[in-house]
Amino acid sequence: MGTVAVAAALGFLLLTAAGGSAGDEAREAAAVRELLVRLLGPGPAAAFSVSVERALAAESGLDTYRLSGGGVGARVRVLGSTGVAAAAGLHRYLRDFCGCHVAWSGSQLRLPQPLPVVPEELTEATPNRYRYYQNVCTQSYSFVWWDWARWEQEIDWMALNGINLALAWSGQEAIWQQVYLALGLTQTEIDEYFTGPAFLAWGRMGNLHTWSGPLPPSWHLKQVYLQHRILDRMRSFGMIPVLPAFAGHVPKALTRVFPQANITQMGRWGHFNCSYSCSFLLAPEDPLFPVVGSLFLRELTKEFGTDHIYGADTFNEMQPPSSEPSYLAAATAAVYQAMIAVDPDAVWLLQGWLFQHQPEFWGPTQVGAVLGAVPRGRLLVLDLFAESQPVYVRTASFQGQPFIWCMLHNFGGNHGLFGALESVNRGPTAARLFPNSTMVGTGMTPEGIGQNEVVYALMAELGWRKGPVADLGAWVTGFAARRYGVSHGDAEAAWRLLLRSVYNCSGEGCSGHNRSPLVRRPSLEMVTDVWYNRSDVLEAWRMLLTAAPTLASSPAFCYDLVDVTRQAVQELVSWYYEEVRTAYLNKELVPLMRAGGVLAYELLPALDKVLASDSHFLLGSWLEQARVAAVSETEARFYEQNSRYQLTLWGPEGNILDYANRQLAGLVADYYAPRWRLFTETLVESLVQGIPFQQHQFDKNAFQLEQTFVLSTKSTAPWTAPWCSSLAVPPALAYTWPCAWRPTHPRASKCTPR
Question: Could you say which DSSP state residue 554 is in?
Fold first, then answer.
């Protein structure tokens, strides 16, 4: 066995030891039984017997479940080596034997009676140690305003999908506040340092400070309370929560208290100036580094306990002060040493995004300096974007350090049908078979959730498969049938069309970041190219409309119909934008007014109405979560403004404009549509007056609209009745399909002339 292989084996042993047991067998079994009651109700739950026995995994040491029983008068028996394994086994039974479906947008849980028999005792072991979940950014793009009820739902979803390793980063600012006060900072200095709630992810990674803050005292109290409940529930299933650790970033005010400290100011991040970025990094050799790091971890673990795995990211999207291997090794070692000073069993979970994001800086020597500075097996690397740009391939499997093959998939919480399902399907197996592979798990690391559920259903299933799904077409057909609770030819055909189009992105250019003209500040230079045939999306839309009379009672179907309609409108906006641009460049006023009028005054208002028919697509739902998290009206307005900034300007001057774009009723009507009206009117005025279009001036005018939206306190449109039950396609959608794309749906008897 080669050196790398030996190191890999050692890493596996150390990680297995670090994982340990987060709770005894009885507690974990009880947690799964309670989940079952929440999921199905006490009556149906009584038909299941759940138990946990570590001995089930004695041979492999990997999470294992066993299913048996069922039938008339017999209980279904679910046995797991951990609570998570038992929950995953339960999910397998509900999915494969009962045809049920568990999802963010609504679960389909109609159980057949009697419960199906497991014909032969079914035992399944996961091929790897870990199934990981979350990105640091998910905490801000999706979780920021959650209460315990929503967290409870998510942890149940995690357990059912076999997740056994996940971030638990709530409440850390309260601990940092204690640490900073103990170090001599004033409360004012601390308040000036923390970002607002919607931007904490980037404060935690050292990218930002101050922006959209300060944090109210009530925020700290509620987050500590939440963190205790989150940790208690995760541990009750046998999950391993990943706590935060000190990465080296400190407030500027620390230089007042310790003027001799060796602190370096970093460069700008994300088009922010140094008022909000240019963070301060404590030098690894400074005596203060272990003091700050150990003080934080000691206070954190005193408050929340520990499961010995900690996350820290020193150079996330920030170039280190030096490329010298000695510096990079020292900076890495300092973080790790501060961990083990408090917890000798500490394992460091590192997001490998830095190696992917700046490959020109992170050459083999620099990567090796970081990976070699921590004992093998004590650094667990997330290959964060492996479905598109795997790093393990060019780093010899992270030079012997264990890694988790992760699917990032989504950026900014964007809406937009997208996936690279073929790559996702085959990627984990390829990584596992890579020469001297040190892969120890699979992971889902989206920046935002609540979208493209088919992608996450596949990825979660792959965490328990030893190889790829043999036939993705058949798999997605089964997915549709389970999701809607019934097999329907048109709906299943629609999903196969989506599989071969929007969910079939391939290559390094694949990114789940929506850059459609619909959600971008308009210009004459926007790119509308896509990797798929747009007619497939429109045909899938037609098929779902055809299926609607049969499937309208399914909440998941109604959600999908709205989502595919949204995507179809997005395609139409691109088409009409091209018409607008062509007409303007050809100086054709009438075609410009016609195409621009359809886009801004018909398509977008119609889209807003469709989105308003599903509570998952309401701006009001997102803003109400923020307001409910507050304890006063002043706080509620502050939180709402945080939310509005994140979805739009992402900074005081549109610093990361529209990065976190979403297509929500209210956002379309009050943010995107006014920009498009302004753009169309500006182009018309340019032709009428014979004055060239000035993008710079338009951007200034658009910024005024964008800022007005952010500062608004206007209440948004309420939820309306589910659109799919009425089958009334808005006229603006039925009659604005371009002739070349028009489906044969009977409502589309007309089309706009080209």
Answer: -
Structure tokens at 718: 């309420």
- The first and second tokens of residue 572, run together, are 């139409």
Query: Exposure pattern of 14-53 as b/e (b: 16+ CB <10 Å)?
Result: bbeebbeebbebebbbbbbbebbeebbeeeebebbebbbb
pLDDT band at 734 (very low <50, low <70, confident <90, very high): low
Sheet of 280-282, strands arranged across: 249-250, 280-282, 263-265
SS3 annotation, 493-534: HHHHHHHHCCCECCCCCCCCCCCCHHHCCCCCCCCCCCCCCH
512-568 confidence digits (pLDDT tens):
789 999 999 999 999 999 999 999 999 999 999 999 999 999 999 999 999 999 999
Instruction: Judge whether 64 and 56 are in contact, CB under 8 Å.
Output: yes
> Could you tell me if 240 and 22 are in contact, meaning their C-beta atoms sit under 8 angstroms apart?
yes
Cα–Cα distance, 283 to 239 (Å, whole number): 34
Q: Is the pLDDT of residue 635 over 90?
A: yes
As beta bridge partners, residue 442 has: 131, 405
In angstroms, the CA 444 to CA 419 distance is: 13
Task: Give kind and range of the element (H or E) at residue 249.
Answer: strand 249-250
Six-digit token string for 585: 């460049």
Q: What is the rounded CA–CA span in Å between residue 191 and residue 12?
A: 42
Cβ–Cβ under 8 Å, residues 468 and 461:
no
Pairing label, strands 309-311, 347-351: parallel
Do residues 368 and 323 touch, judged by C-beta distance below 8 A? no
CA-derived radius of gyration, the chain:
26
Tokens of 720: 């309306």
Measured CA to CA, the distance from residue 351 to residue 384 in angstroms comes to 6
Q: Please give the DSSP secondary-structure letter assigned to residue 632.
A: S
> Cβ(683)–Cβ(585) under 8 Å?
no
Backbone angles phi, psi at 470, to 5 degrees: -70, -35
What span, in angstroms and rounded, lies between the C-alpha atoms of 203 and 195? 6
